[in-house]
């Protein structure tokens, strides 16, 4: 018998298993532990990120089932007035508030919220079975502490529809207390658990005795969460737009002008490293910082960063927390009306860009250095930082000398970071990057299809090739975290008997690593040879391809004394750094520093360190 635990959330859901006697949240195909609680109903039912990225009619992409579940009438919902922000259709039928699919068509049908939740549970069950390679029989599901009896009963119905044996409904604050106790051994104590999720707020006072949890008091709001706050903000912004076509936007209080750490980042935002500064709420008093917009035009995605009131942040599109809401695909399409369509950027930010009066082109590696600079513990004389940037289309490697300078003007004190190019050493620029790795993986999958088709290369349509390429990219991302994953793409081609053929394979991490390992090894050895004398104190990573474990592994091998920095979102770091430069939060030196001068500084500091710590060097 195999049991799993599921957190069925309003916006995201998560499944955990017991591995080696310890609970473990499992990774999904995108390499993350959480799945958007979204279900799309089209020719097939899609869950999570697949539902979000599908081209299915928006009214048939359903979410918020946890808000609707267990309610008899729509007008009884505490936040019924926010229904105007839903993109799907809702109605009441047989004393059940639910969804209406294909409204106004012959295929119209009513769906109960528990049916939608059941699809999410089925998906999570399949994910767990793939990971464990065995059948799951039972489940424990978490629910808000303030869920009413009808809501609990409807949740149990969803579990039944998912063909799972319910072992128990666990209050979310209790689950949180158990998880913390598992990790930190809280002992006998009284706890206050503040659980503020996407759709609910639970505040509980619990008493823990050994491994037992007793509930002493419960409060909260089953319809107040981050998602509701975002909806309220959207309503306020919409009302403001209706009053004023060019609103005076509120960007938040003046805070630390450092790159914003996103919730999607997979790395620790405050790494336990003496060379890295923790995030601080200190305000930078530099009077020369100005408002600015910066755009990172990437091969596959574009991002916009702004500096407003000394606060740098990545621009979001809409209210979704999904990664796609923070970027614009680098695609251009010509519509049937002969109109050029460019992502979402042109529509949403034309009002911002029409007033731009200062344009500056910034090398991506310099922008990356600018984003990281305020978070580095720099030597008083400065340190060398090596930027390793590998995105979708290009590889760029460059070294810079970064200094932190104290400034004073009329009793006003602030810190200035200065980035200086190092002369006599040219940056490395190459075309081996994410797209080339994806191409190699795609070709290997085509080889597998050829073997499957009797050593005859199958004829794939352009649409089928696109689907296979997307699956290959997802597989690459998943294997950055997991030891193995499954690629599953149906109806790719027809064989000689005119039968649909699928690609279904379990791929091991070492297998896919072999497709690109030799080239990555060669590149990083070249980097080590060129920059070895500079002995960079920091190696700053940027670009989605640097998430591949071999990048960090080989850079550590070539630069054993350096600190590898990837604590900022590697997809967004160039945009935030560009905003830091154009806003004058970080400064680019007008003159380069001589290569020999940098080498001499390194030698002097090394000699001083030897005198300070002779036993370390002995």
Commentary on this structure:
GO terms for molecular function: ATP binding; ATP-dependent protein folding chaperone. InterPro entries: ATPase_NBD, Heat_shock_70_CS, Hsp_70_fam. One of its GO terms (biological process) is response to stress. By secondary structure, the protein is an alpha+beta fold. It has 15 helices and 30 strands. Strands 22, 23, 24, 25, 28, 29 and 30 form a seven-stranded mixed β-sheet that branches. A hairpin with a 4-residue loop joins β8 and β9 (97-101). The model is unreliable at 241-271, 279-283, 319-324, 333-337 and 340-359 (pLDDT under 50).
Number of individual domains: 3
Estimated share of beta-strand residues:
25-35%
Task: Please count the helical segments.
Answer: 15
Q: What's the overall geometry?
A: globular
Specify the helix fraction band: 25-40%
Terminal CA distance:
57 Å
Mean pLDDT equals 77
Radius of gyration: 27 Å
- Low-pLDDT regions: 241-271, 279-283, 319-324, 333-337, 340-359
């Amino acid at each position: 018998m195999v049991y799993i635990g599921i957190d069925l959330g309003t916006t995201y859901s998560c499944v955990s298993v017991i591995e080696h006697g310890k609970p473990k949240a499992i990774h999904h195909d995108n390499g993350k532990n959480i799945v958007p609680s979204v279900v799309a109903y089209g020719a097939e039912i899609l869950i999570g990120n697949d539902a979000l990225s599908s081209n299915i009619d928006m009214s048939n992409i359903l979410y918020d089932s946890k808000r609707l579940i267990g309610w008899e009438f729509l007008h009884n919902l505490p936040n019924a007035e926010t229904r105007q922000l839903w993109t799907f259709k809702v109605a009441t039928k047989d004393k059940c508030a639910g969804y209406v699919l294909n409204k106004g068509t012959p295929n119209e049908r009513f769906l109960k919220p528990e049916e939608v939740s059941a699809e999410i549970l089925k998906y999570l069950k399949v994910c767990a079975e793939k990971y464990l390679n065995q059948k799951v029989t039972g489940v424990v599901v978490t629910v808000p502490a303030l869920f009413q009896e009808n809501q609990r009963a409807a949740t149990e119905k969803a579990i039944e529809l998912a063909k799972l044996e319910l072992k128990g409904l666990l209050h979310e604050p209790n689950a949180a207390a158990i998880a913390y106790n598992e990790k930190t051994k809280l002992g006998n104590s009284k706890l206050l658990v503040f659980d503020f999720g996407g759709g609910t707020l639970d505040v509980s006072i619990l008493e823990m005795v050994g491994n037992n949890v007793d509930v002493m008091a419960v409060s909260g709001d089953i319809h107040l969460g981050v998602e509701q706050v975002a909806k309220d903000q959207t309503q306020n912004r919409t009302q403001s737009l209706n009053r004023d076509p060019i609103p005076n936007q509120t960007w938040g209080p003046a805070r630390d002008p450092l790159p914003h750490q996103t919730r999607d980042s997979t790395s620790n935002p405050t790494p336990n490293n003496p060379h890295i500064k923790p995030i601080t709420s200190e305000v930078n008093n530099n009077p020369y910082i100005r408002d600015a917009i910066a755009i990172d035009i990437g091969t596959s995605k574009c991002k916009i960063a702004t500096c407003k009131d000394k606060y740098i942040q990545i621009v979001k599109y809409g209210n979704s927390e999904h990664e796609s809401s923070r970027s614009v695909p680098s695609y251009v399409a010509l519509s049937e009306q002969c109109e050029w369509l460019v992502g979402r950027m042109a529509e949403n930010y034309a009002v911002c860009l029409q007033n731009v009066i200062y344009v500056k082109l910034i090398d991506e590696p310099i922008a990356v250095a600018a984003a990281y600079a305020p978070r580095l513990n720099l030597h008083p004389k400065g340190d060398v930082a090596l930027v390793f940037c590998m995105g979708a289309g290009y590889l760029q490697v460059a070294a810079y000398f970064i200094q932190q300078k104290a400034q004073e003007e009329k009793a006003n004190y602030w810190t200035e970071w200065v980035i200086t190019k190092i002369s006599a050493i040219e940056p490395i620029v190459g075309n081996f990057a994410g797209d080339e790795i994806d191409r190699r993986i795609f070709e290997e999958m085509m080889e597998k299809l050829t073997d499957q088709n009797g050593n005859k290369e199958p004829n794939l349509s352009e649409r089928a090739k696109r689907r296979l390429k997307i699956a290959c990219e997802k597989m690459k991302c998943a294997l950055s975290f997991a030891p193995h994953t499954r690629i599953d793409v149906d109806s790719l081609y027809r064989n000689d008997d005119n039968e649909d053929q699928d690609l279904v394979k379990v791929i091991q991490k070492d297998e896919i690593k072999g497709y690109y390992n030799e080239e990555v090894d060669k590149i990083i050895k070249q980097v080590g040879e060129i920059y070895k004398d500079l002995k960079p104190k920091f190696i700053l990573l940027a670009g989605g391809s640097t998430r591949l474990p071999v990048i960090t592994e080989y850079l550590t091998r070539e630069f054993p004394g350096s600190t590898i920095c990837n604590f900022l979102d590697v997809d967004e770091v160039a945009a935030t750094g560009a905003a830091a430069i154009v806003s004058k939060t970080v400064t680019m030196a007008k003159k380069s520093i001589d290569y020999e001068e940098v080498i001499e500084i390194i030698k002097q500091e090394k000699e001083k360190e030897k005198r300070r710590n002779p036993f370390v060097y002995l």
